[in-house]
Specification:
The chain is of the alpha/beta class. It contains seven helices and seven strands. Helices cover 42% and strands 17% of the residues. Strand 4, helix 4 and strand 5 form a beta-alpha-beta unit. The longest helix has 19 residues. It starts with a strand and ends in a 14-residue tail after the last strand.
Amino acid sequence: MNILGIGSHPDDLEIGCGGTLAKYVKMGHKVFMCHIANGDMGHAEIMPDALRKIRFEEARRAAGILGAEHISLDVGDTHLESSDKVVRDKLVEVVRYAKADLIITHNPDDYMRDHMEASRFAYDVSFCTTLPHILTESPFMKTFPPVYYMDTLAGIGFEPTEYVDITDEIETKLEALNCHESQVKWMLEHDKIDFLDFVRTCNKFRGLQCSVPYAEGFRQYAGWPHFRTQRMLP
């Protein structure tokens, strides 16, 4: 299968589904990681233009550790608008380029607007990618890729309906997340938050819910005709 993660910011997919993406790669599937925003507002001291370049490289290295292909749409933080047809069509091209059999994205109800808009984008393009009169470089697709929502930060307001055992992938996930030094270091030094431990704890909690050491939780979008009879998660 071809798996496409659509995240808002450069580190969002690593946090929410990095272990699952690594597991897909180990199983022989092709994985693409696309972040719509460039993360240029994610620091109080590093200026946006410089941070944009830093976070692109951090995301590229993290994707390499997970074994995924990295794609950035380079939209400025806080500028995500799911009604933006230009960005939507760029994302349609990403889905078609990836020939996505499955899309993983943010929960529609999350703690910040960029995340919610990225989720709406992903939902929209899962349909639009089948429309032949939306012209992109890659040809239109004939079936709707199923959409899965990944966990929220700290799992707040999210009730998984499916779990993926990432016990064998947790260290790879955290290694990829640690590539985002501009975020991890800043939170540790200035907010006193050990974000790697934070994410490990969240995955341990999800693991407790499904009787494994570490897990990631997901919920499938329930609209017709996105469902498949087979299990799509690893």
